[in-house]
Amino acid sequence: MAAVHESVLDAIGGTPLFRLARLGAGLPAPIYAKAEFLNIGGSVKDRAALSMVLAAERDGLLRPGGTIVEATSGNTGIGLTIVGRQRGYRVIAGVSDKSAPEKSDILRAYGAEVVLAPTAVPAEDPAHLFNVVQRLVEEIPGAWLANQYDNLANPDAHVRTTGPEIWEQTGGRVTHFVAGVGTGGTVTGTGGYLQQVSGGSVTVVGADPESSMYGGGDGSPWFVESIGHFLHPGTVEDRWPQAYRSEVVDAFERIPDRESLLTARRLAREEGILAGPSSGTAVAAALRVARRLGPDDLVVVLLPDSGRSYLSKVHSDDWMRQWGFLEAESGSEAANSLRSLLAGAGPLVAVDAGATVGEALEALRAVPGGVAPVVLARAARPYGVSATEVVGSVSRAVLAAALADGGAKPGDPLGGPPGESPGGPLGALLGPALPAVGVGQSPAEARAALGGAHEAVLVLVDGRAVAVLSRARLGGGA
Fold first, then answer.
1. pTM here?
2. Residues 176, 182, 186, 187: is their CA dihedral positive or negative?
């Protein structure tokens, strides 16, 4: 008999484990996936949302007629909206402008008011999502900020529910627990419980985007939503979530975007599990872990959310090709891709936004076509230039003309003389960002992206810029 509940809130938790028999075929240790996408709101965040709301009510922070406010990439906001609307609250979800649009549509469908704001700006910027929602809380009487990053009711939900479920479902046989780290609540609560109940024998592995700071990256952007720790180069004070306890994580597996995204797509095609990109990161990490183990080990990997929220991204062939994650391996389509034009393009030259006119001009001297992308200043780029950090373009001809007519001096910033920035924040010397195309797209598609306003395109591999191709190199006429 199917369970009968008095409310959808009673159906949060109790998710099944599925063995990944196909992806894990031939590996020494079995891998079981904790299907958190089967929660009522479609993600593991339903657990934290219910826990945080109930704790706020107990502590008198949230009263009848109040308003729940939260900054979210989508999933926590969805959970809070379901819980909040069921309990009679108004819900305002501040959503990152980088989140999949499906998430905002889902939030509105459940009754939330959605406010979009950027996260790819310094933490101190008033426009940053966290600062936007903080102002809302200050302005709205009776508003309560859930603050999932610092709310200890977040990891507590997993100490009370997720961890015990995994222990019981595996009969105490689990030896390794693998999960992504976003706010840190899931890995801290679940992992901490499993370590405690096992007497320390369970190994907790954090699955992290390659450039995320949790696992030792430089904090530059990646393309998997909801996990990792990003650091804008202009941020003054870097704060880590209080919900995250780093000592719980025994080791990290750092997963490149391509591996994460393609693994998420394999989950759907080979296991019948339509999950989000962070599930791809976690499963890719679990596969690595299982290869090093033996038959007496048992790996449990947590799948945070459903792929239905990412149909326009990871599960879209067009999106994957646009960002350079998908390309034909052989045949006429591969031969007619931009990959065939990269050999003679030379290394990418990118100009930091903080460069002077003289520095930019020097960098451009050997650049074919004389055009380069301008990117957010970052001391080192071991992972390449992320397409999301491109803020404009700069032309050798424009800079040379500005120096020749006295409109700029070599020591001036690209924004022009102090106090003068007629072209916007970086001034008139900064051109618009070059259109970006994926390496698997065709020269014809690249020419179409050029339109009549640009003379070059930026070519992406795995979401990162690798080359600039001029209109002439793309061929096909003007």
1. 0.93
2. positive
